[in-house]
Design a protein that fits this description.
By secondary structure, the protein is α/β, with parallel strands linked by helices. The protein contains 21 helices and 8 strands.
Length: 438
């Protein structure tokens, strides 16, 4: 039984010091940040013909100042990471939306890139977009990455929409960021979203550039931007046994089970590449791990897993069965090892047991870098890449000197500004411990 409420049916207003009743003060809601729904100059027509591209090149070359650049991919829908729409904006030239798919596969937009090579390109999260821009011949000589600039300035949230709201008091449309940009024709509302992504990008660059100068971080940023440009055309290093990153693989406990994962993964990858479909759209990772962990992988057990019965996966049932049978007929020598050797240091949680001195070095170096990063109002991972720190602490160069530590970090890719700030700080912490007295 619910006990009676001891309060009166109607709460009286609280009283003021003189005993008179005062009505409650209503909370004032925060004003809603206005939504930026349309570009100032409207949404341009998509550039999809040689004649339109020539006009775009002429307009952008006649423009002035930095060039805002963005690209839309179809991550999660397509196998490739190619650009399916490229947005460009420059003062005096307006915004231009270029459909690279209309210019071949792969597209050749090098004429556009060459014409604009002398401009400073402004990109948000350049490491994500530069590979697909490079693929179509759009290669900057100088770059300003607004996301990286915001990180160097210590902003806790650096998404484009967040930064635009921070500096300009308006919100960007973001509901189409995960859309399938390979769709044709592109819906009008998607084109609006795309155009807005570069609407204020140069203005954001100017605000951040001023802050970089004021805080003395502009030289750091220039080095970081130059490194991005230098690495734009570098192919990513191929991962050994990429199938070992399959979701759910931790449930597979045997070498033969890992063989099933590998064979299915490569069969799926071949299909996905031929169809230009995201592998997960063909067959989810979880289904691969589940059948590999089954007591008797085969057609019967496969049909008990719902993902294999979905239309896309069902089309390739014979491929999956063939992969399972191939592994089932292999001898032990043809099966992958449970673990592969790692040329880098082990996971830090294992250091204390394997090498207590290395564990102590890592702790000391991490603490020193965290303190320094806080002083600089900088994320510690931007002060020095965590992988560089782990490798250095696990096996320091011999002998340990500032020169040898600087050389080791330079070989790992650390920039000059990072080494200048960190080498004198961490070198003493990498020295072997003093022998105990007596």
């Amino acid at each position: 039984m619910t006990p009676p409420d001891p309060r009166p049916a109607t709460e009286p207003f609280p009283t003021s010091p003189d005993g008179t009743a005062e009505p409650p003060v209503e909370a004032v809601p925060e004003p809603e940040v206005p939504l930026l729904t349309e570009p100032a100059d409207g949404v341009p027509e998509v550039v999809s013909t040689p004649e339109a591209l020539e006009a775009t090149i002429a307009a952008l070359v006649a423009g002035t100042g930095p060039l805002a650049v963005d690209a839309e991919r179809a991550h999660g829908f397509r196998y490739s990471q190619r650009a399916y729409l490229i947005q460009l904006r420059r003062a005096g030239a307006g915004t231009h939306l270029v459909d690279p798919i209309a210019f071949g596969t792969p597209a050749d937009l090098s004429a556009l890139g060459d014409a604009l090579a002398d401009a400073e390109w402004v990109v948000h999260a350049a490491s994500q977009d530069l590979p697909c821009l490079f693929e179509v011949g759009l290669v900057p000589r100088t770059l300003f990455d607004t996301e990286l600039a915001a990180r160097l300035l210590g902003y806790p949230r650096v998404a484009l929409g967040t930064m635009i709201e921070e500096f300009f008091g308006v919100r960007l449309l973001k509901e189409h960021s995960a859309s399938d940009w390979s769709t044709r024709p592109l819906p009008p509302e998607w084109l609006t979203y795309a155009a807005l992504d570069v609407e204020l990008l140069v203005e954001l660059r100017d605000k951040l550039a001023d802050e970089l100068v004021r805080t003395g971080k502009d030289a750091w940023a220039r080095q970081e931007f130059a490194a991005l440009v230098a690495g734009a055309g570098t192919a990513p290093e191929k991962r050994t046994d990429p199938w070992r990153r399959t979701s759910g693989i931790h449930k597979v406990r045997t070498r033969r089970g890992l063989g099933y994962v590998a064979e299915l993964w490569y069969a799926r990858d071949d299909i996905a590449q031929r169809l230009d479909r995201a592998p997960g759209k063909i067959l989810p990772d979880a289904a691969i791990s589940e059948i590999a962990a089954a007591p008797t992988p085969g057609r019967a057990s496969m049909r008990q897993i719902p993902a294999f019965s979905r239309r896309q996966a069902k089309r390739y049932e014979s491929t999956w069965v063939e992969a399972l049978e191939t592994v089932g007929s292999r001898g032990e020598t043809g099966l992958p090892p449970l673990h592969i050797p790692n040329d880098g240091p082990p996971q830090p949680r294992l250091w204390a047991a394997r090498d207590p001195e290395a564990a102590a070095r890592l702790t000391a170096v991490r603490e020193a870098l965290s303190t320094k990063a806080a002083e600089l109002d900088l994320p510690v991972e931007n002060l020095l890449t965590p992988d560089h720190v782990r490798r250095l602490a696990w096996r320091p160069p011999q002998p340990v000197t500032e020169e040898s530590v600087d050389a080791a970090l330079a070989a790992s890719g650390a920039r000059a500004w990072q080494r200048e700030l960190t080498v004198p700080l961490i070198t003493p912490l990498l020295l072997p411990p003093e022998p105990a007295a007596g």
